[in-house]
Write a structure and sequence with these properties.
Keywords: Gluconate utilization, NADP, Oxidoreductase, Pentose shunt
EC number: 1.1.1.44
Order of helices and strands: HEHEHEHEHEHEHEEEHHHHHHHHH
CATH superfamily of the largest domain: N-(1-d-carboxylethyl)-l-norvaline Dehydrogenase, domain 2
Radius of gyration: 23 Å
Number of domains: 2
Largest sheet: 5 strands, mixed
Distance between the termini: 36 Å
Subunit structure: Homodimer.
Strand content: 5-15%
CATH class of the largest domain: Mainly Alpha
InterPro entries: 6-PGluconate_DH-like_C_sf, 6PGD_dom2, 6PGDH_C, 6PGDH_Gnd/GntZ, 6PGDH_NADP-bd, 6PGdom_BS, NAD(P)-bd_dom_sf, Pgluconate_DH
Family: Belongs to the 6-phosphogluconate dehydrogenase family.
Strand order of the largest sheet: 3-4-5-6-9
Shape: globular
Number of helices: 16
Number of strands: 9
Structural class: alpha/beta
């Protein structure tokens, strides 16, 4: 992801310096992916810092937690007042609050930037959600907005708010992603067990849904997954272990909702569904005792049922986003942030995992009334 972000920025006309503590990776990158570009490499922190224009702008893309603090500690002795450190990883927002305050006390600026879109997004235009030291934004705005995905001619990147706001918004984005994925799974389950449809048939339904109000990245890739067969011709999805892992951002969102007293019911249930899926051995043992309900025999109008299910999925999606924005509104009060709600919706319209046509309506709603009480 870091390499792809560097190549993306190079494409936009910026000279980028790459550094990795395993210096052989830097040489390999310059010899292959970055060959023929304006990207330069560094083999030490000192060389890395020396290569940068003032105020220096440094993006860290390492594993969240102690690794981020360790790298910041290595950078700080070589920096000058006004230099900017950007954490582009999936850090927990309280860490970003702490880092902003600690670095500002030393005369440095800190930005916690949520970056969504994976390797593909990083290369061709991710959604970038920056927040932290307000003074840093004028120096980063052009670079970030050119690097980000574009939606209807507007960049999927804007200043989110102070201290930990950028990583907080990315956290809620991931929570909503958990919700979207769970809703899609339940829609699939109703079509498979309720109507008795085959994977290819369900894939065709998802294809149709992807041309309407549900048009989104997750619906699109679900369609492709359902149509993908193994070498023996059977649907690959049927062979994949029904156990979902998690990195923690959805869990953080649910915990924060409890702390702030916000009814984030849909995302909370999506997190619990993943926890339940991980109890595989116990579920197998339980299935030998409790067989569960028999598959129903559907005798109604299938076409109408599928149309109703599409609307149910759409309504549920609206609930998920409404709860997410409720949580962010409460967090803004709690942490004294000035959150940019219209821009948050715009940032999620392209480049990121939850990108969807539906977010255009949310952007419009918040532009019409930035203090909108509830999306519903």
């Amino acid at each position: 992801m870091g390499q792809n972000l560097i190549l993306n920025m190079n494409d936009k006309g910026y000279t980028v310096c790459a550094y990795n503590r395993t210096t052989s990776k830097v040489d390999d990158f310059l010899e292959h992916e970055a060959k023929g570009t304006n990207v330069i490499g560094a083999h030490s922190i000192e060389e890395f810092v020396k290569n940068l224009k003032r105020p220096r702008k440094m993006i860290i893309l390492v594993k969240a937690g102690a690794a981020v603090d360790a790298f910041i500690d290595q950078l700080v002795p070589h920096l000058e007042k006004g230099d900017i450190i950007i954490d582009g990883g999936n850090s927990h927002y309280p860490d970003s609050i702490r880092r902003t305050e600690a670095l500002e006390a030393k005369g440095l600026l800190f930005v916690g930037a949520g970056v969504s879109g994976g390797e593909e997004g990083a290369r061709h235009g991710p959604s970038i959600m920056p927040g932290g030291s307000d003074a840093a934004w004028p120096h980063l705005k052009e670079i970030f907005q050119k690097t980000a995905a574009q939606s209807d001619g507007e960049p999927c990147c804007d200043w989110v708010g102070q201290t930990g706001a950028g990583h907080y918004v990315k956290m809620v984005h991931n929570g909503i992603e958990y919700g979207d994925m769970q809703l899609i799974c339940e829609g699939y389950d109703i079509l498979k067990r309720g109507l008795g449809l085959k994977e290819a048939e369900i894939g065709d339904i998802f294809d149709k849904w992807n041309s309407g109000v549900l048009d989104s990245f997750l619906i699109e890739i679900t369609r492709d997954i359902l149509r993908f067969n193994d070498t023996d011709g059977t649907p690959m999805v049927e062979k994949i272990l029904d156990v979902a892992g998690q990195k923690g951002t959805g869990k953080w969102t649910a915990i924060n909702a409890l702390d702030l007293g916000q009814p984030l019911t849909l995302i909370g249930e999506a997190v619990f569904a993943r926890c339940l899926s991980s109890l595989k051995a116990e579920r197998v043992r339980a299935s030998k005792v409790l067989s569960g309900p028999e598959a129903p025999k559907f005798e109604g109008d299938k076409t109408q049922f599928i149309a109703d299910l599409e609307q149910a999925l759409y309504a549920s999606k609206i609930v998920s986003y409404a709860q997410g924005f409720m949580l962010m509104r409460e967090a803004a009060k709690e942490y004294k942030w000035t959150l940019n709600n219209p821009s948050i919706a715009l940032m999620w319209r392209g480049g990121c995992i939850i990108r969807s046509v539906f977010l255009k309506d949310i952007t419009t709603a918040f532009r019409k009334n930035p203090e909108l009480e509830n999306l519903l």
